[in-house]
Design goal:
heterodimer, A: alpha/beta, Alpha-Beta Plaits, Rossmann fold, B: 10 helices, about 40% helix
Chain lengths: ~1050, ~220
């Protein structure tokens, strides 16, 4: 037998390419470096830093000699076992407890289950009983656990910068309340919340202080949506789309699967996206200025500057007015201004025809940050399509008229406000740039209750720590309007007050000691006659069943919409010289509130894969025009406001459109999120600077999100951006890794993905190595449905929380050392230009996301190269890692074709990021106490020099196995019931793309999914027999659309080895 | 000049090397053998803050282990009883015994008793009591005859070798689940059969009947 050399198949010329970065498309040396090596050249050396390798060895020699001299470790240290004095109800040492609670977000409360170990919450999951969550949860819910344990949280009550006692603070509040009279001169500034208890307290405060001002501010809110809905439907409502009924969806600058997503929407969309089980697959059109997660899921996508979305909708509405003959829509359009720009007539027309063909089952969603007139026009279009009450309903919201931050700023300016109570928020940092709010805060005495001593804290005369939601009693309303509970899991770590505590004091009540305040609201809300039964039930379920507000069928007020459109629809003419600026919440740190959360800072953006910073996203064409490359700093100025920020070239951006995420450039976020202490002097080019750039100066209270007429110029400096898009690049043709087809292809041959590329040529494979038998009664496996996966990344953070995965800091990310066990690989896909080249096409690529984790290969290449058997196979099909055996050769990582192994180059858990490169004995060692509390006690906290990777959540597997044994006792019935537990990533996934379970049990979900026709194995020709199967993605293009040929994702023919489908002669042996 | 050193001193370096090598070898192999849990742990019997006698409670009075270690069948840890559990009886029995002063004080002040830990698995080992006691592995296999100990001591080595010996040959330790907390239990012997043989016979039967399959090569069974 001759030696067989595996040559990874080359991508064929002229076909469709799947690429991770423009660098890959251009095959740059940097990209080759990432492809061929696990880590870039030199990354594994102890370069830089304070100590040379030689000095290091010398010092190490000395220190080991010293260690030999001291024999302190001869006696075993005496340790104490400390039981409770009195038993605690429900508590079993070592067993986790689960409580229902919910997390406040600006849109609504997210129903959750918190896992606690010995009284400390360690993991958050969605509440499976609640229809909005359905057991899934998002990025922020998962990461909120780290916020609780953030060592940089405000720890002290302060007056004029000096620490005071909590009692002294309370007394001061009492005095202020006593002196406040009728409330003139008193103002409150809070964040958006749907808490009924807060509303109740607000009513009491209004009674006590009728002249007090009540302001609510969210830097990224849905005020425009509320205005539009009120004008259109004549009531205090918010539109609620029902994606489960929509066959054709048009999203206009609406990231309903990403930024603006709700778990139930994502799940409903993903269900309708399915091609299995006789579902009629939906179709998604997306019009947006930059790639979003939603755009990545689109069947047809049009790049349009965000400021032109109104013009696009107008053109579409005109087409629809003709197609549907709807009178109301014609009325609305009658008074509309004329748009200066025309979009591809064919695109708009065919889209309109498709929508009209699905009357009552189509849906047009307009982004919440578009102006009210545009959103109202969107409602009118939905009405014309007969969607109201079918795919688009409304949910009543409580009218909570509050002053805006602009009104508050004016009052501060006029000095009519003398005492300002700020609870939460961070207005000194995130108020619109034109208000100069931080300066105006000096005009009042400020009482601040805040999570961190942040940018707003220095303006505060009194500052108190704010309790985290896992530390406080509360209540709220979920997105469907249902009444949910907020239960504390732990006493406030730093004695913080909750928002309700503060407001109760101002309402003249004592500071609540327990749930009494919420109980009172509960009684009023539910009108319960049996409180003793209903209250514990409420806490047990986490919500009040039947309290959801049903979406009602709204009626359109066409005249009001016509008036709004005629008066307020602004259609700025495009200008080839100037840029528009789109300011969005960040995909990881939101509006800046999570800036000090390391998990989120290190979370790569789903599209750009940028970590630790924000940047101005720019299209390749605009970048060429400006002459900037990735990381080149540009100056962006609009109407006198000016910021400097590095440019980031992202394919799929509209030309002359910059997208900048808010929330970065914090100066007082804490050790993780702050940039250098002096804001004026960023050390450009120094990789150690992270924290990004503050874009709030560009916002105004009138135009918070989209600004036109910006001037942009390169300033001639470069700033290192830590982008992970090329990290872990896999050999092989992209199209083999991410398999796609169209619905037509799928209908013709459901197994279309079975034999792509090399898979058709696999000869009979045998392993050279013998493997232990896989003879356990359970066999673990996973599937990932690429059709459902949006790339949101909730799985990444869920994994991080479950498995004690450390963050490594920007410098280490630049070196490719991020530790995520699961990563979301994002591929762009495009075909060649007319000239056969790929470079210019990059503005119109498609996007696919592929979660990648240890594939648990049955013939694992990593196991055969480990010299110490630290990674071996278990009988139940796991590729297990014994940390205490690992000596850190990293051979396994080198031999992993999927590049999923992660190495602890430094003591990430025991040392702070800035201490990593210091020599062992002089760097500060030890984990912050609060962070110790956050760790999962069932997973080892790994040390330096140890390899790690996805374990399929082996701690959960073992727990389930042991539970089965404990239940089976003296019988042979120890099998784990199908689907009784799952891995952390699968549990959090809002679109249910990841399925985990026992593949030897035919009843399990994973067995059913695996046997489906779309399942395929990655790099099958390597004969690794992986336990993770992917399900090919199916796109559903409208063949009449001008870009349909392109959208027919997978390029069929051209290359003779393309998709043979079921062609037997080429089939090879399986 | 006369030679200061006699001729025989030429051998000194070689002798030194040989002596050092032998000594070094002896020290190394001594440490290799004796600095193991079998010698360093076994017999460890620290003085506890309360002179609690397992011999009286578990042996003489015949109390079941699970009266105090109540969660051993449900949790990974076998819990140390709360002061409350002691006081269940000792408000009535021996209520004024000076040996129980620390317990009464704890009960009155609410401050827990600080027991000294004897059996300690390393942080990277995830031992689970429930998985063992529910499947016919008796307490005595790892803790020895606690019912005979006036002061509890570390009876077995608890080294990885100790664990694996049993994981590879579970039949040596299996007994009917009902007998798990009866530390003095012995299998019924047939005629001419030793206790060990009887145990192996019974253990083999139970192993097959209950599908006992402890992780012996699966690292993740204990390390995760």
């Amino acid at each position: 037998m001759s030696k067989r050399v595996i040559i990874h198949p080359k991508e064929e010329a002229g076909g469709r390419k799947y690429w991770r970065s423009l660098g890959q498309l251009g095959d740059t040396p940097e990209f080759r470096g990432w492809l061929e090596r696990e880590f870039p050249q030199g990354a594994s050396e102890l370069e830089g830093g304070d100590v040379s390798r030689r000095a290091f060895l010398r010092l190490m020699g000395a220190s080991s000699a010293l260690a030999g001299l001291s024999l302190a470790a001869c006696r075993r240290p005496e340790k104490q076992l400390v039981p409770f004095t009195r038993g605690v109800e429900w508590s079993i040492p070592g067993k986790a407890l689960f409580f229902a609670t919910s997390m406040p977000t600006r849109k609504g409360f997210s129903p959750l289950i918190a896992q606690t170990h010995d009284g400390r919450p360690t993991k958050i999951e969605g509440n499976p009983l609640h229809p909005v969550s359905g057991g899934a949860s998002g990025l922020y819910e998962q990461a909120s656990i780290l916020d609780l344990y953030d060592p940089d949280r405000a720890r002290e009550f302060k007056h004029a910068g000096k620490a005071i006692s909590a009692e002294a603070f309370e007394k001061s509040i009492d005095e202020i309340v006593a002196k406040a009279g009728d409330g003139s001169g008193l103002a409150f500034l809070l964040e958006e919340s749907s808490s009924p208890s807060r509303e109740r307290l607000r009513g009491e405060i209004a009674k006590k202080f009728p002249k007090a001002m009540w302001a609510v501010y969210e830097p990224v809110g849905n005020a425009a949506a509320a205005t539009a809905a009120k004008a259109t439907f004549g009531a205090d409502v918010l539109a609620k789309a029902d994606f489960s009924k929509a066959n054709v969806i048009l999203a206009l600058d609406a990231d309903f699967l990403g930024q603006d997503s709700a778990t139930d929407d994502t799940r409903a969309y993903a269900k309708r996206r399915s091609v299995d089980g006789g579902n009629k697959m939906n179709r998604l059109y997306v019009v947006e200025n930059r790639y979003t997660v939603t755009g990545g899921m689109a069947d047809h996508r049009l790049r349009v500057p965000a400021s032109q979305v109104g013009a696009f909708l107008l053109q579409l509405a005109s087409e629809l007015a003709v197609a549907t003959g709807d009178v109301a829509l014609k009325t609305v359009l009658g008074g509309a201004p004329k748009a200066a720009v025309k979009f591809s007539a064919e695109w708009v027309k065919e889209c309109a025809v498709d929508l009209a063909a699905h009357k009552g089952a189509s849906l047009v969603v307009v982004g919440e940050r578009q102006r009210p007139a545009i959103q109202a026009l969107g409602f009118a279009v939905n009405a014309a399509l007969g969607n109201l009450g079918k795919t688009l309903g409304t949910v009543k919201v409580q009218a909570k008229p509050a002053a805006s931050i602009a009104e508050l700023a004016k009052a501060l300016d006029d000095k009519t406000v003398k005492t300002l109570v700020i609870v939460g928020g961070n207005p000194a940092y995130n108020a619109p740039g034109d208000l100069d709010f931080a300066a105006k805060l000096k005009n009042a005495t400020v009482i601040r209750v805040g999570t961190n001593e942040d940018e707003t804290a220095p303006s505060a005369t009194w500052h108190a720590p704010l309790a985290h939601y896992l530390e406080a009693w509360g209540d709220g309303r979920a997105l469907d309007g249902s009444y949910v509970a907020v239960q504390p899991m732990i006493l406030p770590l730093f004695g913080g007050w909750s928002e309700l505590d503060v407001l109760a004091k101002f309402a003249g009540q004592p500071k609540p000691k327990g749930p009494e305040l919420v109980q009172e609201t509960f009684k009023q809300f539910t009108k319960t006659t049996d409180f003793a039964t209903d209250w514990p039930k409420f806490l047990y379920y986490g919500f009040q069943p039947g309290s959801a507000r049903d979406a009602s069928a709204p009626t359109l007020n066409a005249d009001a919409v016509a008036k709004l459109v005629a008066e307020n629809l602004s259609l700025p003419a495009p200008d080839a010289e100037s840029f528009e600026i789109v300011l969005t919440a960040d995909s990881s740190i939101d509006d800046g509130r999570y800036a000090n959360n390391g998990w989120l800072q290190e979370f790569p953006d789903p599209v750009s894969k940028l970590t630790w910073d924000n940047a101005a996203w720019i299209s390749p064409k605009s970048a060429t025009k400006l002459g900037v490359a990735n990381g080149d700093v540009i100056e962006v100025s609009v109407n006198g406001a000016k910021i400097e920020i590095p440019a980031l070239i992202v394919p799929g951006c509209a030309d002359n459109s910059l997208t900048i995420a808010l929330g970065y450039g914090r100066t007082a976020a804490g050790r993780v999120g702050s940039v250098a202490a002096t804001t004026e002097k960023y050390v450009f080019g120094d990789a150690m600077v992270s924290g990004g750039f503050n874009a709030y100066p560009l916002t105004t209270s009138a135009e918070p999100y989209i600004r036109v007429g910006a001037k942009v110029r390169a300033v001639g400096r470069n700033y290192a951006l830590a982008i992970t898009q090329e990290h872990g690049s896999l050999e092989g043709r992209g199209g083999d890794l991410v398999r796609e087809g169209t619905l037509k292809q799928y209908n013709e041959n459901p197994k279309f993905a079975e034999k792509f590329g090399m898979d058709a040529h696999i000869p009979e494979n045998r392993s050279l190595y013998s493997h232990p038998p896989l003879n356990d009664i359970h066999q673990w496996g996973m599937t990932v449905d690429l059709n459902a996966c949006t790339g949101c990344g909730a799985c990444m953070v869920a994994c991080q929380a479950e498995n004690n995965i450390p963050i490594v800091g920007k410098r280490q990310v630049l070196d490719g050392r991020e530790m995520h066990w699961i990563r979301a690989d994002r591929y762009f896909a495009s075909g060649p230009n007319a000239d056969g080249k790929y470079d210019q096409e990059t503005d119109e690529p498609e996007m696919v996301s592929q979660p990648m984790m240890c594939q648990h290969c049955e013939n694992a290449p990593c196991e055969t190269v480990c010299p110490v058997n630290a990674t071996v196979h278990s009988e139940d099909g796991l590729n297990v890692m014994a940390y205490n055996r690992c000596i850190g050769t990293r051979y396994c990582a080198n031999n992993c074709p999927f590049k999923v192994r992660r190495f602890n180059f430094f003591d990430y858990n025991e040392r702070q990021i800035k201490e990593l490169r210091k020599w062992n004995l002089v760097s500060e060692r030890g984990m912050e106490d609060t962070l110790k509390l956050s760790k999962n006690p069932n997973v080892t906290v790994r040390m330096r020099g140890v390899m790690e990777k996805c374990t399929f959540c082996v701690q959960r597997i073992q727990e389930a196995k042991i539970a089965g044994k404990a239940k089976g006792r003296d019988s042979a019935d120890v099998r784990i019931p199908a689907n009784s537990f799952t891995a952390a990533c699968a549990q959090s996934c809002p679109s249910e793309a990841i399925v985990f379970g026992d593949i030897s049990n035919p009843e399990s979900n994973v067995s059913k999914v695996r046997s489906g026709p779309r399942a395929y194995e990655l790099l099958k020709y390597l004969n690794v027999a992986s336990r993770v199967l992917y399900l090919a993605r199916v796109r559903n293009p409208n063949m009449k659309m001008p870009d349909a040929a392109k959208a027919a994702a997978y390029s069929q023919p051209k290359h003779p080895h393309g998709a043979h489908g079921a062609e037997p002669k080429h089939g090879g042996s399986q | 000049m006369a030679n200061i050193f006699p001729r025989s001193s030429n051998w000194i370096p070689l002798k030194l090397i040989v002596i050092l090598a032998v000594l070094g070898g002896a020290v190394s192999s001594g440490m290799w053998y004796y600095f193991t849990p079998k010698y360093t742990r076994v017999g460890y019997a620290p003085v506890q803050p309360v002179p609690f006698s397992h011999k009286i409670h578990a042996g003489q009075l015949g109390m079941d282990c699970r009266y105090c270690h109540s969660f051993v069948e449900t949790a990974a840890h076998s819990n140390i009883p709360t002061t409350q559990v002691c006081m269940n009886c000792h408000t009535q029995v021996q209520a004024a015994n000076p040996k129980l002063a620390a317990v009464r004080e704890s009960w009155q002040t609410g401050k827990p008793i600080q027991w000294i830990q004897i059996h300690k698995t390393p942080d990277y080992v995830y031992f689970n009591h429930a998985a063992h006691v529910n499947r016919g592995v008796s307490c005595v296999e790892c803790h020895g005859r606690v019912d005979k100990m006036e002061v509890v001591e570390h009876a077995k080595s608890h080294s990885m070798d100790f664990c694996l010996t049993c994981h590879r040959n579970p039949e040596t330790a299996l007994r009917p689940v009902a007998e798990v907390t009866h530390l003095g239990w012995e299998p019924a012997t047939k005629e001419g059969e030793s206790v060990t043989e009887a145990q192996t016979r019974l253990g083999t039967e139970l192993k097959a009947a209950w599908k006992i399959n402890p992780p012996d090569k699966n690292c993740a069974g204990c390390h995760r």
